[in-house]
């Protein structure tokens, strides 16, 4: 959304505590402390489109665990809020600067410290880009499973902080399943190590899982021991199918699941996304209302599984099924799915939602999205990770609507989108689902949190937070 | 170990609080309250061999969530400890009755409430036996992944409370990865629901993971939504190989891992276990010092993967490799591994340990076990889940040692075993491992907990416990 200057913005050093903290930060951390207004201004947002109403006190670009410890000690001493941040690619506003906070970036802590193939683990600093670890592993025949769409630009620390998902979760699990241990700096500056280098281990409560997905509200992740997995021998088979309508495509995905073959990837694009991508790529027009299914199989049984899935898709009524193990052809087939975001971005501002429903509720959820779109006069093109019931409805707001008088611009989206989102989350919950499958709560979904967790559940979570962060300095205003 | 009568045993109603609580329990729960001394006495132990020094105040056999809530409300009101218990098959003493406590059994809450194949979930009460769920799923072609060796006798609630592992964890994950949501009665009697029915979801802290493995110290699990998985189409291939020594066998397992094929099962038995089983089964003598490796592959690529693994094992020096996809032959091959426990039990009292090390440290850990066994004059036959570095060294204490004057009988094992175990855990930790991979801490490993978590880590865990259990009534004396 548009950048606006907001009168409520809080400048550095506005408060006495802020000024004292800032002085101490500069004393101890020197040129790692950034005060340039332009550099601070961009921290008010991330990839969600949300802009916070005020600027940070300072940005600290930490280069070591000790830097992070120093920042948190100072912040605790002066009761100044801290916003941990990686690459700023979040989709829920979880790492956006809040007025007067210290934004603590670990982006420069980007060393891969160890790759132990025989133990199938890697030890990384939090600022390592997800894809960079993948590139380091690939020549050895290993991979890091979590594969959020942002993998080329997002950090592993951020992936852990949001428990990021991706396309291959149904087969290879979410980020939590890939994290064995963490080093975390707590708000008082102390360093806590959780978990271990072993695959199994049940000594004490699972703090590793507690920090995974905690969105910077408990401490700052400064190191991670993650599982890596062998890339299975065998080819990767890609299957692309078009259906005359979404209902048939959704039924086809259900039929694949029922066939008990577990594809590595199974993506479902609705008619609006198919139409947008067709226009964007200039590919031949499909039948009006056509929906798209993309499937990949891997491992020793990939060819056989690919054949079985292609057969299921044909039997389920696909009017076009292409299948290939050739990487060049596969890339062409994948391009249709990969072009979705650029295709939507030319249509307006895109706000990506992230609901997840039980797999069997996918058709019902698609129907709800269509109903809500019609009710609010909004196009809500939607893609689903059909293997795990995670849908990304995209609110595409034409430029004409953004910034209209009375529209809420700070906050990232006009009111009409918030109202439609409200109905969307209500529908997802009614179908047994959740308001966020893999992006996190951040600021964008905070108002719906109590509806999902319940009053006592939310209170319990707040008490857990207080165990780690009694002063409440960790990312205040996010999630809780 | 032997049952002994202990003078320190606390009878029901010994204290005023106990008597008042007991009266109220009987008023509210009637015949679900069991006071029979013999029934209470057996609760002092589980499958660990440990016997607690005193008996329970009462056993309550809960039949509903409301029963559990009533017990916890009464226990909180009177500050009486509660020990949650399932089938009593634990190996760390976590569910053993402590003097004056209410043992709250959920064993009779054993209904499978729902199986939703299209959502790949099941909803169960905590007392459902692991294998019973498997039997209900198998005709549909689905399985429940967690497969502790106790699956025929242990409950899913107990599996969750200990985050149980099993033979197939390296490929299919531990219990935590199979649990999507929990219903938990908190110490104040309130009911908390965590998690969801969806595969993904990141709303709030991961309380489901926090309760998984918490060993009854936070609340009582009264319901679980678990993932089920399709049994992959294709055959199951079983490979059994003998090596002339343990070093060669361990190297062979490492070579299988390095080949990037992920077997469903990979078990390694050392020379002592091979010798014991050979004698027990009366099968032909193997080479002195021979070690055994058992591997299973499954899924569409099972045959191809099985061939590849058999090749690796032969190249690594196996002097005998048998391979079969015939279920009858497979059962014969598996029998060698499955006979280990009965074969050891004829030799003396068996205390099963449960260390886990990074996979690459398996040979070093085996060497440590041999050294410790020699130093203490103990046989420590050991089996390892070689796919994930989890070893089960078995202290086999001949009948002559158990109960010797001065030997510690209450507590389950003679001092010499504790001393050897102490060295064992020290070695595991030095190699980057943990003192328990899948059995839990319970009472048996409590004394080593701080060594692994550190003083501040342990203190943090205690503060977390207090959030849920401020009165400290949940399973006191276990873990923390």
TrEMBL record, chains A, B:
EC number(s) per entry: 1.1.3.15
Keyword Flavoprotein recorded: yes
Cofactor(s) demanded: FAD
Keyword Transport listed: no
Record-annotated FAD-binding PCMH-type domain positions: 52-231
Keyword annotations of the record: FAD, Flavoprotein, Oxidoreductase
Highest taxon of the lineage: Bacteria
Leader sequence residues: none
PROSITE patterns given in the database record: FAD_PCMH
GO MF, one example: (S)-2-hydroxy-acid oxidase activity
Entry protein name: Glycolate oxidase
Protein source organism: Herbiconiux flava
Taxonomic classification: Bacteria, Bacillati, Actinomycetota, Actinomycetes, Micrococcales
């Amino acid at each position: 959304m548009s950048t606006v200057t907001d009168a409520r913005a809080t400048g550095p050093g506005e408060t006495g505590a802020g000024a004292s903290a800032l002085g101490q930060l500069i004393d101890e951390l020197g040129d790692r402390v950034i005060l340039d207004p332009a550099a601070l201004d961009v921290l008010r947002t991330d990839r969600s489109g949300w802009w916070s109403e005020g600027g940070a006190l300072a940005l600290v670009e930490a280069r070591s665990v000790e830097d992070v410890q120093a920042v948190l000690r100072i912040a605790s001493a002066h009761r100044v809020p801290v916003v941990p941040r990686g690459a700023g690619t979040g989709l829920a506003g979880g790492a956006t600067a809040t007025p007067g906070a210290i934004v603590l970036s670990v982006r420069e802590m980007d060393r891969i410290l160890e790759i132990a193939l025989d133990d199938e683990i890697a030890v990384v600093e939090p600022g390592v880009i997800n894809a960079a670890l993948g590139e380091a592993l690939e020549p050895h025949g290993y991979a890091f499973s979590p594969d959020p769409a942002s993998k080329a630009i997002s950090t592993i620390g951020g992936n852990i902080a949001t428990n990021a998902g991706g396309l291959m979760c149904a087969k290879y699990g979410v980020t939590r399943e890939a994290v064995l241990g963490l080093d975390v700096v707590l708000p008082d500056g102390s360093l806590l190590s959780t978990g271990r280098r072993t695959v199994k281990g049940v000594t004490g409560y699972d703090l590793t899982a507690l920090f995974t997905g905690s969105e910077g509200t408990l401490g700052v992740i400064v190191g991670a021991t993650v599982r890596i997995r062998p890339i299975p021998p065998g080819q990767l088979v890609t299957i692309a199918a078009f259906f005359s309508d979404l209902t048939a495509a959704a039924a086809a995905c259900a039929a694949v699941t029922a066939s008990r073959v577990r594809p590595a990837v199974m993506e479902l694009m609705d008619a609006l996304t198919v139409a947008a991508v067709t226009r964007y790529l200039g590919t031949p027009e499909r039948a009006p209302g056509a929906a798209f299914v993309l499937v990949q199989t891997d491992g020793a049984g990939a060819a056989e599984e690919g054949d079985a899935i292609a057969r299921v898709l044909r039997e389920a009524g696909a009017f076009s099924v292409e299948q290939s193990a050739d990487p060049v052809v596969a890339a062409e087939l994948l391009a249709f799915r990969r072009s979705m975001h650029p295709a939507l971005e030319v249509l307006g501002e895109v706000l990506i939602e992230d609901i997840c429903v039980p797999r069997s509720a996918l058709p019902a959820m698609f129907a709800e999205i269509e109903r809500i779109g019609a009710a609010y006069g909004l196009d809500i093109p939607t893609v689903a990770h059909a293997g795990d019931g995670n849908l990304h409805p995209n609110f595409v707001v034409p430029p004409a609507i953004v910034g209209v008088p009375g529209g809420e611009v700070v906050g990232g989206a006009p009111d009409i989108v918030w109202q439609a989102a409200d109905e969307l989350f209500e529908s997802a919950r009614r179908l047994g689902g959740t308001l966020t499958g893999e992006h996190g709560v951040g600021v964008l979904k905070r108002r719906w949190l109590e509806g999902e967790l319940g009053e006592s559940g939310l209170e319990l979570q707040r008490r857990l937070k207080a165990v780690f962060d009694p002063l409440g300095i960790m990312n205040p205003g996010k999630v809780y």
